[in-house]
């Protein structure tokens, strides 16, 4: 039966493993006071892509937190094991040193008990000299007392060693139990994350996204749990395996932006009968340089554009015309999918065709 301290440790860790994800409520959109054209209420999300993306991201976050908790627990218990080992070694050294210091006293007392009328003390115990006899008795009393102290000290040290050994064993047992519990939790979360990503990939394929397009394999590029991998690369130098294709051939974005855009495009198709037309999406550094020199004043400095992060698109099919029905519908509904028309694009420079994905806004959906 585990001790109360061990049970407390297990309970504490069990509570810590319960990952509670609080999803922020969306802020009220601060829309511009312009005419809007909508078709009967809020647009739907075909394929439930937003919900699937959110579930995948939650699973990924919970998996990361559980893994971090396991690593932290392992580090803490490993440190405690080392400290206890040091203490036990110190007590063993102290016991040996004390035994060595008291050994002559112990041996002398033992010899007196075995031969109380002989040895070096015999002349003093014959009774011929009262003073010497009293002194000898006093010495014997001192020696016996000293031996008792040796035994008491040794007993205390032994008890301390036993207690420390028990604590070390308890910590090791708790460590194994916690690691097993966290291991099961991590494996469960990993399987759940993989299941959600597979469902999301199937939904994208069903909506016309060729996830294996461009040399990608297994649909990993459209996995929103791998978005953090894209931040490891410079603007405009993202590899193919962190970019997810769009429904329009040759266009691609970062996974989370792509998933949100496909959902927005499907809602747009229900309103206008066709998907959103895209002229440009992710731009490589070389591509951004070409646009920058070809259209000065209408393109960001290479290495500074949201196109190079895979989070911006340039649109056509009517959206590029300011205050067209398509532009107005997108302005009214894009935020519901994490996409915005940035403030600067209304005037400086004026780019009604340019739209950007906002991860912070999407996280509130």
TrEMBL record:
GO terms for molecular function: peptidase activity. Residues 1-18 form the signal peptide. PROSITE patterns: PROKAR_LIPOPROTEIN (PS51257). GO terms for biological process: proteolysis. It comes from the Bacteria. Pfam families: VanY. The keyword Signal applies. Residues 32-60 are annotated as: Disordered. Residues 252-359 form the D-alanyl-D-alanine carboxypeptidase-like core domain. Keywords: Signal. InterPro entries: DD-CPase-like, VanY-like_core_dom, Zn_M74/Hedgehog-like. PANTHER family: D-ALANYL-D-ALANINE CARBOXYPEPTIDASE (PTHR34385), PEPTIDOGLYCAN L-ALANYL-D-GLUTAMATE ENDOPEPTIDASE CWLK (PTHR34385:SF1). This is D-alanyl-D-alanine carboxypeptidase-like core domain-containing protein.
